[in-house]
């Protein structure tokens, strides 16, 4: 399950088993735009899309229920999502994922309040000059 999937097209590009169920979720406008852009392209596996605002607690829980159902085990991917959420929203998302027994793994990326100097490879606290390289 890819939360905040954006325009990711893995289900169309990866050599996935046709029986695999891939679930994507994102804001309604993003999903509508993606469906418009992809047109009638055919994914390589079963693909379901669910519109949801992940900052809305009720919508998030309802989306997870609909998404995972009796499917098991589930891997959740979030890439480029957590930067849009505040600490409380990240914690709430984590709690909701944990509450779904069929969700077994969560693959996520994380931005720290620091950056890495390319030359010395040492972490440095972000400053105006350093942020974003
Ligand atoms: C930087 S993009 C990452 C897209 C994709 N995961 C990738 O790595 O290419 C961030 C995505 O998060 C989605 N997003 C931001 N806030 C969201 C929210 N509150 N609920 C659901 N999706 C959200 C955006 O619509 C967008 O698709």
Task: Write structural notes for this entry.
With 133 residues, the protein is α/β, with parallel strands linked by helices. It has a single domain (2-125), classed as Vaccinia Virus protein VP39 (Rossmann fold), CATH 3.40.50.150. The protein has a five-stranded parallel sheet. The model is unreliable at 117-121 and 124-133 (pLDDT under 50). 30% of the residues lie in helices and 23% in strands. The two termini are 31 Å apart. 18% of the residues are buried. Helix 3 (57-68) runs parallel beside helix 4. The chain has helices spanning 10-13, 28-38, 57-68, 87-99, and strands spanning 2-3, 21-26, 46-51, 74-78, 103-108, 114-116, 123-125. Helix 1 links the parallel strand 1 (2-3) and strand 2. S-adenosylmethionine binds at residues 4-6, 8, 26-27, 30, 53-55, 79-81, 84.
List keywords for this structure.
133 residues; alpha/beta; Rossmann fold; five-stranded parallel β-sheet; two-stranded antiparallel sheet; 4 helices; disordered C terminus; binds S-adenosylmethionine
Bound molecules: S-adenosylmethionine
**Helical residues, percent:** 25-40%
The helix-strand sequence is EHEHEHEHEEE
Write the CATH homologous superfamily: Vaccinia Virus protein VP39
CATH architecture: 3-Layer(aba) Sandwich
Mean pLDDT: 87
For the record, the count of structural domains works out to 1
Radius of gyration: 17 Å
Class inferred from helices and paired strands? alpha/beta
Counted by DSSP, the helix tally is 4
Q: What is the strand content?
A: 15-25%
How many beta-strand runs? 7
Report how far apart the termini are: 31 Å
Largest sheet: 5 strands, parallel
Q: Stretches where pLDDT falls below 50 for ≥5 residues?
A: 117-121, 124-133
Given this structure, which CATH class is correct?
Alpha Beta
């Amino acid at each position: 399950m890819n939360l905040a999937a954006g325009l990711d097209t893995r289900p169309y590009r990866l050599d996935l088993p046709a029986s695999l169920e891939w679930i994507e979720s994102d804001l309604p406008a993003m999903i509508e735009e993606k469906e418009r852009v992809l047109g009638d392209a055919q994914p390589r596996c079963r693909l379901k899309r669910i519109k949801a605002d992940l900052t809305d607690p009720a919508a998030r829980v309802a989306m997870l229920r609909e998404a995972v159902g009796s499917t098991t085990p589930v891997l959740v991917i979030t890439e480029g999502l957590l930067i849009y959420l505040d600490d409380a929203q990240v914690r709430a998302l984590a709690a909701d994922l944990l509450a779904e027994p069929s969700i077994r793994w969560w693959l996520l990326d994380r931005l720290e309040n620091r950056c890495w100097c390319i030359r010395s490879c040492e972490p440095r606290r972000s400053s105006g000059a350093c942020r974003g390289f």
